[in-house]
From TrEMBL, chain A:
Residues 87-302 form the ABC transmembrane type-1 domain. GO terms for biological process: transmembrane transport. InterPro entries: ABC_transporter_permease, MetI-like, MetI-like_sf. Keywords: Cell membrane, Membrane, Transmembrane, Transmembrane helix, Transport. This is Lactose ABC transporter permease. It is a multi-pass membrane protein. It is found in: Cell membrane.
TrEMBL record, chain B:
The chain crosses the membrane at residues 12-34, 73-97, 109-128, 140-164, 185-210, 242-262. Its main location: membrane. Belongs to the binding-protein-dependent transport system permease family. It is a multi-pass membrane protein. Residues 73-264 form the ABC transmembrane type-1 domain. PANTHER family: ABC TRANSPORTER PERMEASE PROTEIN MG189-RELATED-RELATED. One of its GO terms (cellular component) is plasma membrane. GO terms for biological process: transmembrane transport. Keywords: Cell membrane, Membrane, Transmembrane, Transmembrane helix, Transport. It is found in: Cell membrane. It comes from the Bacteria. This is ABC transporter permease.
């Protein structure tokens, strides 16, 4: 799960930090404080990332030396039907998982922002799945989805027996059946972000809107939404990054099947690399995931950069 | 309708909608708990979705010893605890240096470190897998601890930097005048002041590391080394359609993070929001 922080303008501290800059010189131990973590990250992240980009231009079985083939892997993708499915499913995942978790998370936050008796319990109930691993979440839902499981049982009970289904084994429902557990786990998290955002809105704004005769909807439209802009930016980044990282829940429930119908780029990348042992092509798929995530990462870093000093 | 009855009506509709929503959310959890105490014969006879006709705790024993969950849970803790401690220690050091001293390029360094954490892990999987083979760490818990530290540290540096930067410069200047060394300032002044942030991040990072699957299956191979998440997938394969055992295994796998959440709920939510809204 990605967690990001909002960035706000804080130019007031600038003078203070400039004064500090003149006043202090950097002792060697302080330099070491930065270098040790930086080297750890360089060794396990930056260096492997560079290799990953290079490997995407090679053909490699992991045993003999990688063979440079230029953009060959990317050309192959153009004719790879499974890649097309995985790309489409990933986009669908972004829209459905991302969109619904934002909308429903905001909805839950609007409902549970009020400080009433019992609200702590309700919030905890919605938040509880967030602490489960996606694997455990997946297994819980796998049991619900079974042909003799609760979901089919309930459908039969309310007279919709015709809809009973082997949800995970059917190509037309597998992807959606995998999205639901992911949503179940994500909504509580988005809700927590929005509850904090809603609490940050100055009540005076609502008072003023009420005096002007604004309806509930107008208040939401013209006060709440604009005031949530920075939280929205955080939620958007979290959602895009989490969507593209989604792997565990699909891997535990369907392995991308049946017949690649629930395949995401992340699962296709993993099976290509570690099961088919096509490490070059797998790296190229990873680069595609990176490209999709790049816009969000870059815009987030730009905002963080403006704020960081 | 007078004001009082309108208020009552609002309260009632709040509890109905919020209560219904919570019930819907808790339902899968209740069902897995119920399934975990049913016997196999009961499920076979009445179906997975029926009301329980049996009660047994044997499923937990089976998942715990035959299913290998005991060993897996120990592995998970052997990875998670050192990982959280070392990551936060390293991150606190870097955040201290970057926020309290005029290092050259400090803003760039901070963002480079954060950027590393935002990368999709997929781009790193193959090289990290090969790197662990090259260093002889492949299929060891050490490899998993190290890679999780390397990948996670950037985010914690960024959050702690934001937190430490807000500590007034005067406190540090006073300590410098008193002759305190940077180490003393770090240990005696900044770290204690950063304790709320560290507590929040500990709760958060415990669940992240504990719940990880992708890194584990990338750098580990043998079943005996797998943490609880990967072992749970193994259990799924080992006890196909024995939903009572699988449910018991899921409960065991989720219990530690739920315990952390219930014990440190405030820190947890604070962690997610740390710096999110200022």
């Amino acid at each position: 799960m990605a967690v990001l922080t909002a960035t706000g303008d804080r130019s007031g501290s600038r003078d203070a930090s400039r004064a500090r800059r003149r006043a202090t010189r950097v002792p060697p131990v302080v330099l070491a404080f930065v270098l040790v973590p930086l080297l750890a990250e360089a060794f396990w992240v930056f260096w492997p990332a560079l290799q990953g980009f290079y490997l995407s231009l090679t053909s490699w079985d992991g045993v003999s030396a990688p063979r440079f083939i230029g953009l060959g892997n990317f050309q192959e993708m153009l004719h790879d039907a499974v890649f097309r499915t995985a790309l489409l499913d990933t986009v669908l995942w972004l829209v459905l998982f991302g969109g619904l978790s934002a909308v429903l998370g905001l909805g839950a936050a609007l409902l549970l922002q009020q400080e009433r008796r019992g609200v702590g319990f309700y919030r905890a109930a919605l938040f509880l799945p967030v602490v489960f691993s996606l694997v455990a979440t997946a297994l819980v839902w796998q049991a619900l989805y079974q042909p003799d499981g609760v979901i089919n049982q309930i459908l039969g009970g309310v007279g919709l027996g015709g809809l009973r289904h082997a949800w995970l084994a059917d190509r037309s429902t597998a992807l959606y059946a995998v999205i639901v557990p992911a949503l179940w786990r994500q909504i509580g998290y988005v809700m927590v972000l929005y509850v904090a955002g809603l609490k940050g809105i100055d009540p005076v704004l609502y008072e003023a809107a009420k005096v002007d005769g604004a309806t509930r909807w107008q208040q939401f439209r013209n006060v709440t939404l604009p005031q949530l802009r920075s939280v929205n930016a955080v939620v958007l980044s979290v959602i895009v990054i989490d969507s593209l990282r989604s792997f565990d829940v699909v891997w535990s429930l369907t392995r991308g099947g049946p017949y690649h119908s629930s395949e995401l780029l992340s699962t296709y990348m993993y099976s290509t690399a570690f099961q088919s042992l096509r490490l070059g092509y797998g790296s190229a798929l990873a680069v595609v995931i990176f490209v999709l995530a790049f816009g969000v990462i870059a815009s987030y870093l730009v905002r963080a950069f403006k704020e960081a000093d | 309708m007078n004001a009082l009855s309108r208020r009552r009506w609002a309260t009632a509709s709040f509890h109905v909608s919020a209560g219904g929503l919570s019930l819907l959310w808790l339902l899968p959890i209740v069902l897995v708990l119920v399934t975990s105490v049913r016997s196999f014969d009961d499920i076979a006879a009445h179906g997975l979705g029926s009301l329980p006709h049996s009660f047994t705790l044997a499923n937990f024993g089976q998942a715990w010893s035959d299913g290998g969950q005991q060993r897996a849970l120990i592995n998970s803790l052997l990875v998670t605890v050192p990982c959280v401690l070392v990551t936060l220690a390293l991150a606190a050091m870097a955040a201290f240096a970057l926020s309290r001293y005029a290092l050259p390029l400090r803003r760039t360094l901070l963002l480079v470190m954060l950027g590393g954490n935002l990368l999709p892990p997929q781009i790193l999987l193959i090289p990290v897998n090969k790197l662990t083979e090259l260093t002889g760490l492949y299929d060891s818990l050490t490899a998993l601890v190290l890679v999780q530290i390397g990948f996670g540290v950037g985010f914690y540096v960024f959050v702690l930097h934001g937190f430490m930067r807000a500590i007034p410069a005067e406190i540090q200047q006073a300590a410098v005048i008193d002759g305190a060394s940077p180490l003393q300032i770090f240990w005696r002044i900044i770290l204690p002041l950063a304790r709320p942030a560290l507590a929040a991040l500990s709760a958060l990072s415990f669940t992240w590391v504990f719940n990880d699957l992708l890194w584990a299956i990338t750098v580990l191979r043998s079943d005996a080394k797998m943490p609880i998440t990967a072992a749970l997938i193994g259990l799924q394969g080992q006890y196909v359609s024995m939903w009572n055992v699988i449910a018991a295994g899921s409960v065991i796998a989720a219990a530690p993070t739920v315990a952390v959440f219930l014990r440190f709920q405030r820190h947890f939510v604070a962690g997610l929001n740390l710096g999110a809204v200022k």
